[in-house]
Amino acid sequence: MAPKAGEFLFPIKPGERNYLSGTMGEIRSNHFHGGLDIKTDQREGLPVYAAADGYISRVKQSTYGYGNIIYITHPTNGLVTTYAHLREFASPLADFILKKQYEKKTFELELFPEPDKFPIKRGDIIGYSGNTGGSGGPHLHFEIRDEKDRLYNPLKYKFSEILDTTPPDIYTIGITPLNIHGRVNDAFERREFRTVKKGTNYVLPDTVYAHGLLGLELQTIDKLDGAANNNGTQEVSLVVNGKQVYNHYIDQVPFELSRQVSQHINYNQYKRTGRSFQKAFIDHGNDLPLYKANGRQGRFNVHPDSTYQVKLVARDSYENTTTLSFVIKGKKPSFTQTTSKAVKGPALSYEIIGNILKVNASDTSSTPQNIELYKDGKKLILVPSYVKNSAGIGLYDLRAGAPDSIRFCGVTSGLGVEKAIPPATDYTFSNKFAKIQFNSNSLYDTLYFRTNLDGEVYTIGDYFTPLHQAIQVTITPPNISEIKDKSKAAVYFLGTGRGRGYTGGKWDGNSITFSTKNMGKFKVMEDVKAPTIRLLGKSPTQIRFKIGDDLSGIASFNAYINGEWLLMKYEHKEALIYSEKLDKSVPLSGEVVLKVKDIAGNEATYTTRI
Fold it and tell me: What would you give as a GO molecular function for this chain, any one (predicted)?
């Protein structure tokens, strides 16, 4: 069904000029942004209006994620609109939820009312804007979904409240060689090129010289009129010599596939630098239904002595368009000797790029030396493909089998690849300190898997390589004899910094098994400290506390007044819990007991009187 302008009412200040801080298709850490973030004048409490006739089909109140959210089903078109991060719900829904919270004695709640329970008319006030859940500031998150839970771009409905005559920007492109013969400016490496604005469009100031199979990426953002926020660009096309070889259009994103944004972007660059480069080709394992591409899935071959007129076209939801134009000239790979006075002796390093092992071998010789690869006791001679700054660059296709070690002029390095784990299959990997189970949807592409145990820290795979679905890991901590209470010990994800994220795990004897959707560093740690509780204020109308935990995190909290359960609402960003009475006419009076438990099971109790 084609979208109609005016089919939906804008949910904040309808009929007035509005501004957005986020749009459909922006890149998040593990998903596409699924709707609109509507500004609310940097404050909470603005009325939120139902976008069309329908009924409330789902409502949820939670500490994280969407926070307080309402789902309205619209029978006339089969679509669902959602309204997230609400400060509060409007009556009678608010009264209904409060009663259910007291019945179930829980703050977090998810309900699916019958269609006749809360009928809604277009323009009804259903709640008030807020900053609950994972929100980073006051706003309304608004989505449009279909019955298959696919996320639609709300701006297709051409809300008159949003003005956009500003075309997207294309700041930087990345060009990556995708086979062993690939070169970008004479090197087998991903290269970035800053664009130059020329009139209303962009160019590259210099010609790019290349060879072999290439993949392009671009760093693009969009701005709307009157707002400084960097928003997502909805559509990208790649045109080579006048023919479109690739297009993506971010709309109708299946909710269950949203994590595949990891293959839509250069995940390695995103995790290392925070910059989002969207690929202009369909990478392995990417099943998102967003693409139109040629037989090479947007990749294209560059042949010697040929010229390629390349255009990247970025288009926003209001069809404002920007074009980047540049030239790639085909250049046959050549072996050019270069030297560097900085090289004082033999040195060896390597990296794995896709299926290719790239070895950098430097020495003081005027003639590049061969590199030796060893596998199962057999030696393979790797002749440098080219030389850069006195480093012979050897390229080896790992699909022929990963070597055990690399040797060059007396310098030896272990490769550390223990196994090539294939995608799209169930696979179990084991070594002396870990067992890892991959399911058929865990990997996007072949994983050249490495593990390590350094003291008490396990390295499982590569932090900069994405997983689509979780892997299951079983380990036996080397410090098991020092763990006093295994019920309080769990696995924590260390990432790359100083943070510690609770991962959990289930003990079986001296081994613990956990699931993770991220590879990287892990450690088993014991949490023996109870949560902290601090009274902020108390009165006959409300009592407020700050709560916290130093390791595993808050699992539950329950308050009682004179032995009767008292609802406490939780705002995790401020570590704040505060009471809400079922009967507002009855003052709080008597003994209040608050019990807070962390995930490890440690409990703290605070008692006071009002």
Answer: metalloendopeptidase activity
User: Cα–Cα distance between 530 and 560 in angstroms, integer?
Assistant: 19
In tens, the pLDDT along 393-431 reads 999 999 999 999 999 988 999 998 999 999 999 999 999
**418 is written with which tokens?**
């223990």
Q: What radius of gyration, in Å, describes the C-alpha atoms of the chain?
A: 29
CATH 2.70.70.10 assigned to 20-157? yes
Phi, psi of 353, rounded to the nearest 5 degrees: -120, 105
| Domain 420-526 sits in CATH 2.60.220.30 | yes
Q: What are phi and psi of 80, to 5 degrees?
A: -125, 130
Report whether the peptide linkage leading into residue 540 is cis, meaning its omega lies within 30 degrees of zero: no
pTM of the model: 0.91
- Tokens 């664009």 label which residue? 195
pLDDT at 32: 87
pLDDT tier, 341 (very low <50, low <70, confident <90, very high otherwise): low
**Using CA atoms, how far apart are residues 473 and 437, in angstroms rounded to an integer?**
6
Question: Which sequence spans correspond to the domains of the chain?
Answer: 20-157, 169-330, 347-417, 420-526, 532-609
Who contacts 609 (Cβ-Cβ below 8 Å, separation ≥6)? 590, 591, 592
CATH superfamily, domain 532-609, is: Expansin, cellulose-binding-like domain (2.60.40.760)
Beta partners for 474? Answer: 435, 513
* Model pLDDT for residues 184-209, shown as the tens digit of each residue: 999 999 999 999 999 999 999 999 99
